[in-house]
Every structure is written in structure tokens, then in C-alpha cells.
Amino acid sequence: MQSLGSIRRDFSPWNDPAAKPYIVFDQVTKKFGDFTAVNNLSLSIYEREFFALLGASGCGKSTLLRMLAGFEEPTSGRILLDGQDLRGIPPYRRPVNMMFQSYALFPHMTVEANIAFGLKQEGMESSKIADRVAEMLRLVKLEQFAKRKPHQLSGGQRQRVALARSVAKRPKVLLLDEPLGALDKKLREETQFELMDLQQKLGLTFVVVTHDQEEAMTMADRIAILDKGEVMQVATPAEIYEAPGSRFVANFVGNVNMFEGMVTARDASGVSINSESGIAIRTENAGDAQSGAKVAYAVRPEKIKVSSRPPMDTANNAAEGEIYDIAYLGDMTVYYVRLANGLVVKAASLNSARLTDDPLTWNDRAWISFKPDSGVVLTR
Amino acid sequence: MSNAALSQAGLPAGTDAGPGTKLLRAVAGRVVIAVPYLWLLLFFLIPFVIVFKISLSQTAIAMPPYVPVFDLSEGIFGLFASLRELSFENYLWLTEDALYFNAYLSSVMIAGASTFLTLLVGYPIAYGMARAPATLRPILLMLVILPFWTSFLIRVYAWIGILKPEGLLNQFLLAIGVIDQPLIIMNTHTAIFIGIVYSYLPFMVLPLYSALEKMDYSLIEAAQDLGCPPTSAFWKITFPLSLPGVVAGCLLVFIPAVGEFVIPDLLGGSQTLMIGKTLWNEFFANRDWPVSSAVAVILLLLLVVPIVLFQNAQARAQEQGR
């Protein structure tokens, strides 16, 4: 299988054994009383990387970010930034800045004063501060709002002020806690690209915490999937989606059909799986599954073909069922096909033509089929 | 155009059942608003008018001890006749005797100083309460209000027992050997400050607490994140944001403290000059109702200034409230 790279061409320091990681979590554990928020976690983030921590609420992603910012100290383990151990360094002396989920704009200060706040703390000359503030306002397109107070701004504008304030000091690392969480969907999509643009322009390392997988997939070079304080997988968005490392990751990101079964044979060209659904699966993407292993074969809905006619090869990777439900989404239609053993398979087909010559409707008999390289074998 | 007009005319008029209910609703609204106004009229404006009228009268050895007194039996002409007898003499008298001016001045200064001291004591208490675990806050709030369960007078009397030369404080300090002569606190300004700070502390703590408690702690984290050490973050973020609470607390302490009578009388001794005491003396010792009424009217005018300031600050805070 070919490697699935970053969305940014020529940027993959994690594949370069000579590259030195910029931020290192080294066996970090964080406990709050009896609750273990982060459990013996190790993670490396590279310079100029746009890194996303993705997970459900309570998975420890925000705690990781707060430990990096200095608001929490790890119970055990080390956090290194550019080779320096961060333990004991208070937040106001760390070369990182954070964009807060609530934005945390100072309500008694104007937009200008908010952005200048960090620079004043640094003791920068006032003329230089004015220049930097003007530059930041230009960057986030808020020039005409400089004199406003935060409560006179819209949600989107506040988000930009928070962003401008957090990058004004040119931190080594920018931490973003659910940066787009409070915006509506349209604005969120626009802002995603602006954030990526900004990161490129400023050449900063971004670490973003999000529970929104689409957001993480769009923006990040690499994503760490977290669950219960542990890293489940760290990989590029394409790898996470196309080659998930476990059932958890496959289920967590996007939609998936999971065919549980047992490997019956393994040879040079792949494996054969006898699935509980009754489908005989033959696939090239065997992974490390050995003969006799209990595995799941994960196939994304858009890689399953639905048709009223049987496919060429009905012996492997195909089954007949009944259309159980149809979700028409405009750009695509998702068919829910119930197989003989009751398993419901999701199959998405792109509506590339306005009218299809093979209309399927409720309770029709239909065939599902997929190619040998459509899915991945998951042993975990 | 006619189409639009027609369709508009065809629409039912709002959701109201008819003009009758609308009228009823309007009247009910007025009645609801009228209640507090009526209250103020009965218990504030009318008594004030009576006091003001007395302040324009002359003292007399009579019951009540002033003339003229309205006699309803003489009808409207009697009213006019007695109105003609009113004069501003009592107010002139207030300017002639330096006692009153000094009493006003010293009241304002004592009240101002003790308000500042109350702020110094109350702010850390309110801050600590606002940062306490959420489960503990109701208990702390309860503790602040708890002294109100005992009579104010008794609590001030209790301070005499603590502060007098042979009182608890001196006994304690003598016993541990910090001092060898009892401190003279009773009948000094210090005793008044202690009394006012103690008595009015809840009025300072409560508005401060409510201002500090609703403050988003992530603002402090944001300030620290931007390079601001904790002490500096307090002065740049926490304190400015708690200013509405500071203003409210200071005025809630200052306004009643200016006219305070019990504390200077019990703790301040005879040489303390405060307007509340002067008022009491005029009223009960001298039985000069007209002059004491004039003193009260001037005191009220004096307090109107901070009250207006307070209301302005409140209005501004509400406007800023996001």
C-alpha cells in the first residue's frame, strides 16, 4: 500500500528520522484526584506542523493543551519544547500562547488594547506595539473595529480578535482550544481555511484541540485520536480515514461498515476472511492479520457499490440484500441495505448524474459489492 | 399599492382578542408600576414633605413643639395663613453656628475613611469567597450574612466590652505581653472606624462578591498566558472588572455611615462630632424639632450626590453588561 502523505506536499518531518521533534510529551500522566485525565501518553509534534488533538469530551485533549500552556503540571512525565523541559515554568514565562475556547477577551479593553496586552507585558516600545497591532488587525481584517469593545462585536469578529491577540507576540507555538466551536457552520468552514492560511503565513506551530473531525481533517497535517487519556493513533488525515489502526479509530472518524469475521487463509496476495455477515471477503490490505485471527474488515460507505443487478463476481466481496432505508442528501444518496443475517450495510453513491438509470427504492432487492482494496483489515 | 394595503387590512390585528383585553392589559401594567411609586409616595415623599415643613417652622413650647401647626378646622384660609408664617430662619441658623458645618464635615470624613477601610477588609474576603469551591460558597455567603441575625445595637454594645480599657482586647494583649499599658481605643475615632467597618462589612462584601463571582476565570488565565504575572493580572484585569462592585459597595457603606448615630454615640464618646449625633441632640435633648428637621433635610441633600453617582454607575454597568 502506498503511503498517504500530508495535505501539504513536501511536509512530512515525522517520516524523516533525522528531524527533531519540537514538542515532546514524554510518558505524561495527569491525574485529578482519582480521575486519570492523561495516561502515560507520549507524542511528538514537529516545528511548523498543524497538529490536531481529536477526541470526544473528557478524552484528555484539553488537559494536554493546558499542560503545554502551563495551567496544569503533569503528575508524572516530561513535556519538552524545543529541547527545554517545561516543568515549573509558569504560564507567563512560556513561549506559547493560547486561543481560548471562550476567547477570554478582556471586556473592559478595546480590540486594540486586547491585542496590545501581551506586547505591553513584554515591554515592547509603544511605537512598535502600534505597528504590530495595526499589522494584526490587518491580518484578521478588523482595521475598522480597533476602538470597539468586545461586546460590540459579532461572534466571528471576537474569534478574530482572540486569534490576533494570541499570535501578536509571535509565540513559538499557538495553542487553539476549540477555535471554531462557537461559530456557525458556514463561518466555521471559511475560518478553517483562514486559519490554515495564517499558519502558513506566520510559519508557526499550531496545536489545535477539537471534537469536530471534519475540522481536524480539513486543517491538520497530522491528527492524534485520543480516547480516555491515551493516544489511539497519530497519522495524517488521509491515513486516519483510509487506514485506521483500530476499530475505535475507524468508527470514530467518518462512517464505516464493519464486517467481523475470521481469517481463513493468508497468502502472498492477501487474505480471505469468512465474515459473520456471510460475505466471503478477499482483500489485498491484509495488515498483520494471520490465519485464524479474529478481525474486522472495515469498508467506508462510499466504497460500496449498490446495484439491482448482481456484480461480475458474486463469490467474493458481494452480497444480496434488501433496501431498508434511503437517505437522499442531494450530492449523494446513502442506501441502507439489510443482508440475510440482519446486518445493515451503508453504501453511499455519488449523484454525479441528475437522473440515474438504475433507480432503487425501498424494499427492492439489491446487490452490494466492493473491490479487494476497498477496505482494511483491523486486528485491534 | 392597493393590493398591499388590502392584504394588510385583511390581516387580523395582532394576536389580541379585542380592544377590551388590550385596555385591561394596559391598565394592569400601570397598576403594577404604580405599586412601588405609591410606596415611595407614602413612606418617603410625604414624610419628607412633613419634615421639610417642620424645618420651616419655629420652635414653641407646645405639643408638637413647633408653630405653625395646620389646623384643618380653619379651612383653606387657615392653611394659607400658616404657610405665610413659614421661614428659612432655621437654615440660616445652620450656617451661623460652625458646629453644624463641622459636624457635616467630620461625618463625611469619618464615613469616607471607614468606607475605604471597609473596602480594604472586604475585598480580600469577597475575592476569597468568589474563588472558593462552588460547594463552599453558599456557606461562606451565609456566614457573611449571619451577624444580621443579632440586633445591630447589641453587636455595637458588644464592641464596648471588647474595646474598653479593661476589655477583652486589652486583657488579651496584656496577658500575652504585647503591651504593658491598656490601649485607649474606646471613645476615639479608631473605635468608630472599627464599629463602622464591622457593622457595614456585609454591605461591602456582597456586591464585591457578586461582581467577582461572575468574572470568567479564563480571563486571568489569558492574561497570564500573554505574559502577565498573577499580581499584575489582578490589577489589570480583576480589579477593573470588579469596579462596579467596588462602587456599589462603597456607596452602600458610605451613605448610611454619614448619618450613623448609634456607633459614634456608643463607641465614639462625647467629643466625637457626627451629624447623626447632632441631629439626635437637637431632636431629643433640645427638643428643637425645626432645627433638627433642617439638619435632616441638608443631610439628605448631601447624600443625594453620592446616590445619583451610584445610580449612574449602576446604569453604566448595566449598559456594559454583555
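qc> The CA atoms of residues 132 and 168 of chain A lie 7 Å apart.
qc> done
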